[in-house]
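Database export, one record per block. Field names are fixed; values are copied verbatim from the stored entry.
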Amino acid sequence: MKPTLDSETRRLLKLKKLMKKKKPEFLRYLWWKFPKFINQYAWRRPKGNDNKMRLHIKGYPPSVNVGYRMPKEVRGLHPSGLEPVIVSNVKELYNLDPSKHIVYIAHTVGLRKRLEIQREAERLGLKIANRV
């Protein structure tokens, strides 16, 4: 079942997609220089007194700031406009509305229960984002 979106929400979802495409990947300072950061690219705020990245000096990667945030109405929504919900068992599916929610099966769920959840979600008309 497709979500019923008004024109404003549709416009904001398109804007979110465009903004996401333009948003840089925020990596920690000096990730390119030290081997100890080889698998630790995750953002860490630069805090040093003379840190060039903190001072926003030209030639250094961009810092995280509020200007990169998505529109409030569509923040956290799936690109389809549905609200994502993490599900770990079949019982949790019964509270969901197919026109509002999209299901993510929790990563801790094993194959047997995952298949049960998928069957039941299909029967209820719910979409699953991380289907096997």
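Remark 1: The helical segments are 7-22, 111-124.
Remark 2: The mean pLDDT is 92.
End of record.
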